[in-house]
Design a protein that fits this description.
Helices cover about 40% and strands about 15% of the residues. It has about 260 residues and is of the alpha+beta class. Strands 1, 2, 3, 4, 5 and 6 form a 6-stranded mixed beta sheet that branches. The radius of gyration is 20 Å and the shape is elongated.
Length: about 260
């Protein structure tokens, strides 16, 4: 089962980095408005945490009226959850995250130790390195407004017992397997600051220049706003009037009938 979930994508070994390569600018700024996030289920038995934040995408009435920061962050699905990556990606999308890059990787112990160098004096460091280098991980570059903070909020606290107690709908509370307070098998990694995001993204994707993604994001927002939202709004209005027994199936068929 584990093999079927990710081996078809292939894995690569992270190459040695060129330490002389200067980091490039990663965060960019654009004006965005707000839309409501929508809830959903990926299975018939498990409700997923997709209502943790609004998803701002469109220009419009913005309560704060200020500039909104479109950021990137590094996200990692740890080995214990790699087989569920498609389910996790559904949660990412429903929370408004744009996947810029994705790689299935096998880290060496040295690479895992370098990634978590700031924890090198912690008593759990060796176990963390062993855990991250034992099986494939899935690495993402995600983009969204206030992406670093929003991803941290979605995955929850690093300590799984605390996440289960205080944030039971966070991803770590749902999928983390760590029994104690150590942040080892807590299912996910997320950059804890914009500076850390820049450093970690360059570690995995040294040739990537994310400052060039601003135009792509702006084009995507404009396309959704101008081409998709009028049709979606019309369909939702009709569905509200008809109130079908199976709204999702009705709306899907309504969209298919209009290409």
């Amino acid at each position: 089962m584990f093999r079927d979930s990710f081996d078809s994508l292939g894995t690569r070994t992270l190459p040695e980095r060129d330490q002389s390569s200067p980091p490039s600018s990663i965060c960019s700024t654009s004006r965005v408005g707000r839309r409501e996030s929508v809830s959903g289920e990926v299975s018939g038995h498990e409700s997923l945490p997709v209502l943790l934040s609004d998803v701002p995408l469109f220009n419009g009435d913005d309560d704060d009226g200020g500039e909104q920061t479109f950021q990137c962050t590094l996200a990692i699905i740890k080995p214990e959850v790699t087989r569920l990556m498609y389910k996790v990606e559904c949660v990412m999308t429903q929370n408004g995250f744009i996947v810029i890059m994705k790689e299935v990787l096998r880290l060496s112990r040295d690479q895992a130790a370098e990634l978590y160098a700031e924890h090198s004096q912690a008593p759990y460091f060796t176990r963390l390195v062993d855990h991250m280098s034992g099986n494939p991980v899935v690495v993402y570059v995600l983009s969204k407004r206030n992406c670093v903070e929003e991803w941290q909020r979605l995955i929850g606290p690093a300590e799984v017992p605390r996440a289960k107690r205080l944030f039971p709908v966070s991803l770590r509370a749902i999928y983390g397997t760590e029994k104690g307070p150590d942040p080892v098998a807590n299912a996910f990694h997320g950059s804890d600051s914009p500076a850390a995001a820049e450093r970690e993204i360059k570690y995995f994707f040294p040739n990537m220049k994310l400052d060039e993604t601003t135009d792509v994001q702006d084009d995507l927002v404009e396309y959704i706003k101008d081409a998709m939202m009028p049709t979606i709004s019309k369909g939702l209005s009709e569905m509200f009037l008809i109130q079908p027994n199976d709204p999702l199936r009705w709306f899907g068929n309504w969209l298919l009938a209009r290409d």
